[in-house]
Amino acid sequence: MRSGYFRILPALLTALCGALLSSPAPAADPQRVVSLGGPITEIVYALGAGDRLVGADASSIYPAAAEKLPKVGYYRGFAVEGVIGLQPQLVLASDQAGPPAAMAQLQKLGIPVVVLSAEPTLEGLEQRLEGVAKALGLGNAGHEQVARIRAEVSRLTQTRSKQSVLLLSAHSGKLQAAGEGTAADALLRLTGARNLFADKGYKPLSAEAAAALQPEVIVTTTLSVEANGGIKGFLAQPGIAVTPAARNGRLVVMDDLLLLGFGPRLPEALRELQAGLAARP
């Protein structure tokens, strides 16, 4: 296993907090675990260790059991008091969890913290799977998941799409597009389809810009559709309504964590996206 598979708090955290923070070593077989990041929580369940979770952040919405866990806020701004109150033996955190001062406080209190890369690549997913398995003392469970995912993705990517696609979210009434470096873009690239949004990361998208891109297909999340009153309301939004995708009913709606998580359900996400891109109204 490469040394980068997991690390105890990134150097960036030390720099921002202005002090060298040393995390105590996790217990060999931790039974009280808090997860900060929906994809990390999903990995714990995929490895068969969901019964060890005593809490998670608000983005942990899959599987159904995760929604019943005590929540400590959103992982990018979690409540330290909420984590402490759950008396964890280990905190598993995305490297996007924070703020840094909150992460540092956990360490000062002697709570072991393992930070895992959120990179939306197959290599990054392997690091998360094997890092979580190692932290939980699960032996080869991570390797087995990695082998399964690699084999399924290799088979699925034999079929390629050539369609032009716009990846959108609209939870708060404002359009955001997903560009290079996002999990949604990484998933789309596996299909062979072209992402029309050329910028990096998630960025606001004006109605004029959406209309000018003229996507053949729009891909979005379940929560985005629900926030706009359903598919009809989503497609009627200014800028979207005049696109070929809206005129032809070419909208692919996916579970939020499935589209945005790049987690252990990656083959399922890829199959669902491929089917949506291939479908004709």
Task: Describe the fold and architecture.
- The chain is an alpha/beta fold.
- It has 2 domains: 3-153, Rossmann fold; 164-278, Nitrogenase molybdenum iron protein domain (Rossmann fold), CATH 3.40.50.
- Helix content is 41%, strand content 14%.
- It has 14 helices and 10 strands.
- The chain has helices at residues 11-17, 38-46, 64-67, 80-85, 100-108, 122-135, 141-156, 183-191, 207-213, 222-227, 231-235, 244-247, 256-260, 266-278, and strands at 33-36, 53-56, 90-94, 113-116, 164-169, 176-178, 194-195, 202-204, 217-221, 251-254.
- The strands form 2 sheets. Strands 5, 6, 7, 8, 9 and 10 form a 6-stranded mixed β-sheet that branches. It has a 4-stranded parallel β-sheet with strand order 2-1-3-4, sandwiched between helices.
Which key terms come to mind for this protein?
ABC_Transporter_SBP, Hemin ABC transporter substrate-binding protein, disordered N terminus, 14 helices, single chain, 10 strands, signal, 6-stranded mixed beta sheet, 281 residues, alpha/beta, Rossmann fold
User: What is the highest CATH level, the class of the largest domain?
Assistant: Alpha Beta
Helix content: 40-55%
Radius of gyration: 20 Å
- How many β-strands, per DSSP? 10
Helix and strand pattern: HEHEHHEHEHHEEHEEHEHHHEHH
**Count the helices. How many?**
14
Amino-to-carboxy terminus distance: 46 Å
Return the CATH architecture of the largest domain.
3-Layer(aba) Sandwich
Biggest sheet character: 6 strands, mixed
Instruction: Provide the residue-averaged pLDDT.
Output: 90
Morphology call: globular
Query: Any low-confidence stretches, pLDDT <50, length ≥5?
Result: 1-22
Structural class: alpha/beta
Q: Could you say what the CATH topology of the largest domain is called?
A: Rossmann fold
Q: Please give the domain count.
A: 2
